[in-house]
Amino acid sequence: MNRRTMLRSASAGVVGLLAGCSGDGGNGSGGETSDDGWAGGTNVAMTDSLAFEPKTLTVNVGDTVTWKTVGSVAHSVTAYEEKLPDGAAYFASGEFDSESAARGSYPDGSVGADETYSHTFETAGEFPYFCIPHESGMRGTIVVE
After folding, report:
1. What is the count of structural domains for the chain?
2. E strands along 7-138, which residues?
3. CA-CA distances (angstroms) from residue 117 to 7, 17, 25, 86, 102?
4. Per-residue pLDDT of the chain in tens (145 residues, 90 and over written 9)
5. Predicted local distance difference test score (pLDDT) of residue 36
6. Domain at 96, CATH number
7. What is the pLDDT of residue 41?
8. Which of 73, 136, 139, 142 lies most in the core, judged by the most C-beta atoms within 10 Å?
9. CA–CA separation, 106 vs 86, rounded Å?
10. Where does residue 82 rank: exposed (0-12), middle (13-18), buried (19+ CB within 10 A)?
11. ω into residue 107 within 30 of 0, thus cis?
């Protein structure tokens, strides 16, 4: 591993740690942000430690949430279709219209380094989601009030 790769990996880990220290309990209404501004507010960082930071984010109806890959490992944002609130729009990076379409098309829809995906939440409720290639541990929830 060259020095640049090592430093990038180390800084991604630090960003992930800082993002987890927002102090707002996962509520999207404020708190500190990571050095690159991608923790807290209505932003979710996707880290090389295979985590959504914050894991749970609370926003208001009509808010737009933006996910960003802050490391070098590509991720996806994929809603668990059967767990969405009644009447809620399905969401997935790649703009797929169903969970099966997103799963079947991966890696289409992946969000690479420094790329973003955004979705506006128009229905109140809990929106569980995951990263397709890292589903076993990389899951999150958007709570819309």
Report:
1. 1
2. 43-46, 52-53, 56-59, 64-69, 78-79, 116-120, 125-130
3. 26, 22, 23, 23, 14
4. 443 334 344 444 433 333 333 333 333 333 334 445 566 689 999 999 999 999 999 999 999 999 999 999 999 999 999 999 999 999 999 999 999 999 999 999 999 999 999 999 999 999 999 999 999 999 999 999 9
5. 57
6. 2.60.40.420
7. 82
8. 142
9. 26
10. exposed
11. yes
Q: Between β-strands 43-46 and 64-69, what pairing exists: parallel, antiparallel or unpaired? A: parallel
The helix (run of H) or strand (run of E) holding residue 141 is: strand 139-144
Tokens of 41: 């507010």
Tokens for 101, please give them.
Answer: 């379409």
**Does the pTM exceed 0.85?**
no
What range defines the domain where residue 78 resides?
A: 3-144
Q: Which two tokens stand for residue 134?
A: 């890292």
Taking only Cα atoms into account, the Rg of the chain, rounded to an integer number of angstroms, comes to 15
Among candidate residues 70, 60, 61, the one with its CA nearest the CA of residue 28: 60
Question: What is the structure's pLDDT at 39?
Answer: 60
Residues found in the chain? 145
